[in-house]
Amino acid sequence: MQPALAHRRIFAALLATTVMTAPTVAQAQDTASGEQPAPPAAAEQSEGNDIIVTAQKRAESLQDVPIAITALGTKTLDDLQVDQFEDYARLVPSLSFKGGGSGGSASGPGNNNVYFRGVASGENGNHSSSLPSVGTYLDEQPITTIIGALDVHVFDIARVEALAGPQGTLYGASSQAGTIRIITNKPDTSATYGEVNLELNKVAHGDFGYTGEGFVNTPLSENMAARVVGWYRKDAGYIDNIPGTMTFGTAGITINNDEFAEDDYNDVTTYGARAALKIDLDDRWTVTPAIMGQRMLSHGTFAQESGLRDLEIM
């Protein structure tokens, strides 16, 4: 008999970046017409225009980047309803992974070991031994851990960049096989706007789940703007922890799992928020401090027990 397990994973990333762009690289500004560039959310533009990426620490067209890169823009992420790591990982041809509750692993969510082109390290969970071979970044902040990539909820994201091949020159340790970059939408001084999404879903052989997420962007002055994002997600369980007893023969003691028996008991709750402030110091310097926190709480186990019916454990 195995009692229900509760795993709490808490992480917070403090992101503070200072970016200098030369006027000649000016974020796709049309110098002939004098028009200002589109808001950061328009990272994936209409057909016929380039997708702008920052894989090499500068803004440039995807077509001009001399490395193997896959870029998923805002429109693609929204159209394909990408919410988490597993969703966008399946869209990158050279990327594979193991772990995550919905992916079939007993370890539960938040433990995604990532591989590019099949390159893997020892992955024994020992900090004195090998580290993951793929680095993961949220903007300029590394979020790679000893057990793999943190599963950041994907919402109000400008693009996801997947860089295959060694990236140690620009991204350092844990980037021998490649790097994943999650680029958030930055505050926009042009207008006040926002978005709210609500979702209700049903898991096959399981319970109901739901998601609520939203963001608001507001200018604070001509050269300052703020952007706040929040989300709450409930992934329904599908494993039944059935009642049972176990007797220790030598001691004659019988115990039961009545306290933990429950249908669809391996549910996962994820909630968090992200806030950023953009300050244009002059035409060349922009400061963008940001803070982000997320908590993931999972119950039960994501394995089924042999000798019982499908999707059951005792």
Query: What is the average of the pLDDT values?
Result: 78
Helix content: under 10%
- CATH-assigned homologous superfamily: TonB-dependent receptor, beta-barrel domain
How many domains make up the 3D coordinates?
A: 1
Instruction: Supply the CATH architecture.
Output: Beta Barrel
List SSEs in N-to-C order.
EEEEHHEEEEEEEHEEEEEEEEEE
Strand order of the largest sheet: 1-20-19-15-14-13
Radius of gyration: 22 Å
The biggest beta sheet reads: 6 strands, antiparallel
CATH class: Mainly Beta
How many angstroms separate the termini? 5 Å
**Structural class assignment:** mainly beta
Keywords for this entry:
single chain; 314 residues; mainly beta; Maltoporin, Chain A; 6-stranded antiparallel sheet; 5-stranded mixed sheet; 21 strands; disordered N terminus
In short:
Helices cover 5% and strands 43% of the residues. With 314 residues, the protein is mainly beta.
Tell me what you see in this structure.
- With 314 residues, the chain is mainly beta.
- It has one domain: Maltoporin, Chain A (Beta Barrel), CATH 2.40.170.
- It contains 3 helices and 21 strands.
- The strands form 7 sheets. The chain has a 6-stranded antiparallel beta sheet, with no helix packed on it. A 5-stranded mixed beta sheet has the order 4-11-12-7-8. Strands 2-3 form a two-stranded antiparallel ribbon.
- A hairpin with a 2-residue loop joins strand 7 and strand 8.
- The protein starts with 5 loop residues before the first strand and ends with a strand.
- Residues 1-48 and 101-106 have low confidence and may be disordered.
